[in-house]
Protein 1
Amino acid sequence: MILRELSGLTGVWWREFKVFWRERSRIVASIISPLMWLFIFGSGVGAHYSVAGVSYRDFIYPGILAMTVIFGSVFFGLYIVWDRKIDVFKAVLVAPLSRTSIFLGKVLGGCTDVLLQVMVLFLFSFLFSAIDPRGLPQAFLFLFLSSVAFVSLGLAIGSLLKSLEGFQLISAFVIFPLYFSSGALFPVDRQLPSWLDVLVMLNPLSYTVDGVRGSLMGIHHHPLMIDFIVVSTFAFFMVMTGSFLFSRMKI
Amino acid sequence: MTNAIEAEGLSRRFGRIQAVSDFSVTIERGEIFGLLGPNGAGKTTIINMLITILPPTAGQARISGFDIVREAAKVRSQVGVVFQDPTLDTMLTGRENLLLHARLYGMKKRDYIKRIEELLQLVHLKDRADHLVRTYSGGMRRRLELIRGLLHRPTVLFLDEPTLGLDAQTRARTWEYIRTMVGKEGTTVLLTTHYLEEAEEMCDRVAILDDGKVIAMDKPSRLVDSLGGVVIILDAPTLTESILKDMPFVERANHSHGKWEISLNDTFKNLPLLLKRVGPINQLELRRPTLNDVFLKLTGRHIRDEAQEDAGGWLEEAFRQDQRGRS
């Protein structure tokens, strides 16, 4: 029984990886935008400003990793709307397999895609003098947990949506607000207007950015343990919510 | 041994529409059973209930002895499904589609590796097995779906319009494949189609559905024989309905495409009488009745008149949209 679930789960994961690998030219495309943020936006602003003792370009590196994770993950999850529309999912959903296993296979598939992109960005980390490469594994852990959380969020929303038209809305009302209020592009300190400070505190992505920045350059607002607890609790909660909504999704 | 399929009073209602009412049947192992009827008759709804993706609103059914509601997981491992709309993963190759299926059904590696090769061979897809499904023709896709449905050795195979959208030649070939594969493994088949000639040839038994109800269920040959001997096809320009109504031995008459199709209640005896009164005749043909005639007799309509080639499951779709509007 458990073996069968596991076989199905890894099967779904394998499928996602196959498809992703077949279109690996997409990795290049998905890396372009973060690189532009780092090397054009970051270098431009960094020429005038430095933050917390590091150049602005270095400062936003963790934020851009978080951006890559949230965009890649949520959109991967939302993609099931399309899968359902073209019916490929029907054959998966009639298999003698619990929806939870299918869901987890999808989550792992999405994480794999996104974390491969993260690793490509890691290759550029030597260009950023503020980064201590010994912190990369810990940063990776934060990004992995966040990816689990946001793929689950994408799948949760995707199982509720009926058509692809909702994509713009999700982008405008979920992804961009989370990204911009996460401290990815600015330091979280006393100078923030209090309303923004509240937003940042409520935003789970802030704790990812804080954790990654703390791991890579020792700059952080919360103790890293707090960041870790918040990010993993959020991931756990999103997996539960996502798998619940996914199991109730109509074929 | 338990029966392959047992249904008692199986019913499904969508809002105010009764899609299937009181469907009861017992299908033995190894039987090929056809569900026939126009679109919207409830064929796909019956299949969806039996494969556990749509809960019935009344009645019950068992597949190989397992209840479709209470033992859905067991039912799922017992059935293979070929949906009406293609559900192959076009981003994967043919072989990869089969590998994925094997893993989803928890098959053991030593079990599926050889079987996949055999099945590919059987439907002549071996050469193309490593090409993306995106590049397959319609007939190739159907064949791949067929062997995918059989890969995990189901006791019951559901085929929803397996030849829809294929050209006549490919249709014939597809049936041949179905017959070979099913015969070899002794699989029970429940299929739907509105190509009645094909059903007549393939099925051990058929149920004719109209408006969610079974209006006839028997061996195709028995249903056809019940109509009596022959159908007379007449091209007689001056013939009218009132002339035919005057002749009590005319059992049924139907005018379509400029020709009359007439059945007499006593095969040939009154044929001379009929011919004497129909006026000038351009053309005369006699043919054996078919399931189409059975359908015509039972419903007063041609099945093809209503069957749109691509409108499967419209009722459920309509229901979904209805629900959406409300929520």
Protein 2
Amino acid sequence: MSACLDIRGLSAVLPNGQRVLRSVSLSVQPGEVRALVGESGAGKTMIGKAVLGVLPKSVRIVEGEMLIEGEDLGRLDAKARRTLIGARTALIPQDPLTALNPSRRIGPQMTDRLVRILGWSGERADKRIRQLLNEVQIRDPERVLKSYPHELSGGMRQRVLIAAAFAAEPRLIVADEPTTALDVTVQKQILRLIAQLQRDHGTAILFVTHDLGVVAKISQKVSVLYAGKVVEEAETAQLFAAPQHAYTRALIAATPRYTDPYASLKPVDESVLAGLTAEIAAADKDWRPGHG
Amino acid sequence: MDEARIARRGLSPRLWLAGGWLLLAMLAAVFAPLIAPQDPLAQDLMLERLPPFWLDGAEPGYWLGTDSLGRDLLSRLIFGGRIAFIVAFAAATSACLLGSALGLIAGYFGGWADRIISRVVDVWMAFPPVLFAILLVAVLGTGLSSVILAIAIIDWTRFCRVIRAEAMSQARMDYIESARIAGYGRIGIMLREVLPNVLPSVVALLSLEMGIAVIVEAILSFVSLSISTDDPTWGSIIAEGRLSIHQAWWVLVFPLITLILTVLSFSQFGEALKARFDPVLR
Amino acid sequence: MPRAVRKMARIFIQAYGHMLLQRFLVRLLTMLVTLFGVAIVVFVVIRVAPGDPIAMMLPPGASDDDIARLRALYGLDKSIVQQFFIWLGGVLHGDFGTSISLRQDVLGLVFDRLPATLELATVALLMAIAIGATAAILGARSRGTAVEAGIDIASGATLSIPDFLWGLMLILLFGVLVPVFDISGRVSPQLDLPFVTQFYLVESILRLRLDLTWDLLKHMLMPAVALALPLAAIIAQLLKQSLKEVLDLDYVVLARVKGFSETQVILREALKNAALPTLTLVGVQFTFLIGGTVIVERLFSYEGLGNMAIDAVINRDLPLIQGIVLVFALLFVLINLAVDMMYALLNPRLRHG
């Protein structure tokens, strides 16, 4: 059985030629949660956007392949790719405050993919959405569906977005730092909710985050990203037990622990970063698209 | 930021094209008696409706043909430029001075001064400008100074609105406060600190307004309300061309091209100057 | 808990509905002040007129007595302030006086011609929105490509050329070079018109006389295009800019991930939110467009209010000029009021607090 998502040797550049992704390879098996962890600017969100075909126009993919359930996105024309992504994937966005259209009611925003892309009847979509709202523990679906986004709290909006993401039974969900923009208390609930729905629906998730604490809670496998390069890949438990790469060790050392919050307030070790940067710069020198 | 820089680079050739045309047209207007091939007023019924030089039946010396009274079109266009540019400079400058002064006062002092001036601007905006111009010239009597005065009376609001908004945002900034603490008077502060900052917008508007003034003058002489009907103006040539459009299309085409080039050049020139002088874009 | 929330929401909407009303009343008051100002300006401009309107009404050789009697009849012997309020009182009662050149009631003349101008301006506005929005959507769809650059250059140039020159160009192109459209009049003179109102276009559609509709549109097309083009260019530029800003927002990205095409994304998600800033501008620009009808109607001999206004000025028909200018001013402030209210109603954030 082919992987749910398979990325092979993906490289991308900015208009000035600077590389933002460096031969990234990773795969997500059906029903698996793969965390993609790294500091801001490491390119983790870029990978998610590349998979979903919503990279900014300035970023250009120069080599590599992306396969969703064995179908090579690069070989499809724009329309087929869009339909495939719409039917089999979904996105849980980072900021629930900006991810809903302020001038449309919640209801149509949740059902529009089911009806207009997947061709469901309005009734079926409506029923499905109510079921999902129940699953994300929204007690008053009637009011929520009729609301405009600004009438709901951040946590409520994120629940709505999660429900909408799972509604079409996608095979793969890209969760792009789904808890970062929320209050700490809400973060935990939302994380638990995503884990719950993931288990119930058996959906594979590519979980983009900078927070190793979140990684430990939700994922089975981890890819550690630095400057657009995967520096380590492992089972989650193994990564924490025996980190192989110096950067991973530094990242773990810099992560707050609930047992000892004060010991953790130090940045990632400078010398480790310096070594990595030099290594990457050396590799860049010899790199040509297609030969990397 | 990137976009602005690209836009500025793209504007440079436009600045040269626009400036080039305006310079050419202005020089032609200034030296009209020297370069016009014919007397613009000389009628000759033997020479009526001569076509431009590349068509059959054209006469040498009448490059762009003649109108229904046998007057040389090129010479009339060159002399018409004199009135067009006099009106453009005089009317736009007057409107600019009046509007900028009121705009500065309203924007910087605020309060009742602002309220009164803004109300007057509102009233002015409720008039259809072309009708207002026609009405004013009808009341003031035709003639060059009436046309200039009418345009200035109507279009000062353009400057006033822009300058008022800019002066208001400038007046709120810290450096105005520090200038006041340093002991400058209000008027001094206004001239010293606000004026240089609003200058790019004023320059752009001024250039744009010159184009508008040329059009308004053309419209006024099109409805025979500009200056005396004998003197050639671009608008009166167009009015003549509109009447004989089926017999002599060139009488309409050439003044039209002249007007379009002039108006486009004024607006592009203004945009380019603004981009060059704007401290934020630079 | 939800009931409490709902109750609070209702209170909020009531409070905000009150705010809307308040906004409306404030605007209405401002509008009346503006109109009063317009009346003063019109009165002053016309009384400053050096030509004596009475002298023009009388045959040459009228005696001083005749002149004095007529002055008294028109109230010209009173003080200027008294004259103003007498005149204003008449205006408020719908008495705009009698046209000197046409010897008819001014208000009747104005209302006879106003529909023609309104129809022309409305058709032009619709064309401007259609052309401008299409160009904006096209440009936003293909942002960063040669298509967008082309639209930028075209709209920049279109914007700089005023309606007067567009009208002349259209006359040359489609009246002379390829004579496909009529370049003069409102309707073909040989046609029999069954209309009872002056809204010919509306009435021809209602009566299903589509042959007449077609003839009217054929006459209207070129002046309407001349009026529409500069506004279309402004709409294209502004709407494209706001569309591009909106298209980078998260909810638009989410819509793309859902599988919607770029065109669907623009039409369903982006257009409404991007249109709001454009709407305010279109309101102001629509008044400029109506102002443009004065000369464009003249250019195409279209029998509207503007064309009559120019005749009135040339004939020094002061009562008629007054009436026309006041009607234009009323139209302008009403449009601004309507746009302001529409803006408040369309903005869901304002509407729901």
